[in-house]
């Protein structure tokens, strides 16, 4: 399998004299054949700035930098695919941080690109190719004209057309999972937050956070427009906002008003679940689904990344347990990173966390971060590194009643034959 690299203009090549390598956190490692799948539809190859590609010299068997002014290449995977390895590289400028994306090892073999990844959910619904831009532009015009005073529709129109956010696009296309952002503030200071970064962080946020407090009517207009089919999902908590539960005073009456008018579809919240009292109120108002973001079930790791303000991981666990006991379908948005998530102590802690909270789904989501920056803030490994492939297999064995996936699903997903839709 040949190493893939790029020149300074972004042209991508495979190197006939170098074998590809990957990375598990800080460790350069061999890529196994059973870790590779063909480059998925909807994936993007990108050049990693400030890096040099590392591979195995096919003639000598030595690990070497590719000579010349070249950069490492990674793949950005669509939802439904879990990264197993990072690209093999070293930084050429250690003071520079990579843009906030989830870079995956890519190789050239059998006249095609392959990536170190695993299919973990049906990729169809989140493949950008299924978002018709012409139809989207038409629907944006229709709904913003219908609700000219609704600031949320105006905000989401930029998310859909400017940032190409698929959840925002679904809101206008009135299908699948749609977005209804509500919060401009947050009770966490996530390292590498995609919507808000302090100037000294060294990161550039790829999108801006909403800067206004919506009215209940603006929220309910979007919810009613979207909840038109039995399988529709409308979600509080998007990448363009802060923590939605901080606006429980808006969410609770909005849910109650909607459920007085329609029982159609499902209401979801994507949350850090730290504000347990607020979560209880939202659950009791009529919430159907709850996805909780986490990066670890270990306090020191969790705190280093989320920097929680006035809550702890124990609050998160209490919120999940309450929602589960009230019949809400609960899941975690598990931010995974090769060489960290697959540490022995992380796996053991997460298995126990899942058992205690009774959640139904682990959504494996590739962490978008500069690797060196992330590794610099979290605890060092305390146990054996098992690898992402083995980690997934352990979860499957130890948590047979919990689904491994990549995004939120309606209740029928948990009773249907999921294997029939898991195709490349």
UniProtKB/TrEMBL annotation:
Cofactor or coenzyme needed: [4Fe-4S] cluster
Iron recorded as keyword: yes
Keywords in alphabetical order: 4Fe-4S, Iron, Iron-sulfur, Metal-binding, S-adenosyl-L-methionine
One of the record's GO molecular function terms: 4 iron, 4 sulfur cluster binding
Segments forming domain Radical SAM core: 181-351
Stored InterPro entries: Aldolase_TIM, Organic_radical-activating, rSAM, rSAM_sf
Pfam families cross-referenced by the UniProt entry: Radical_SAM
Name used for this protein in its record: Radical SAM protein
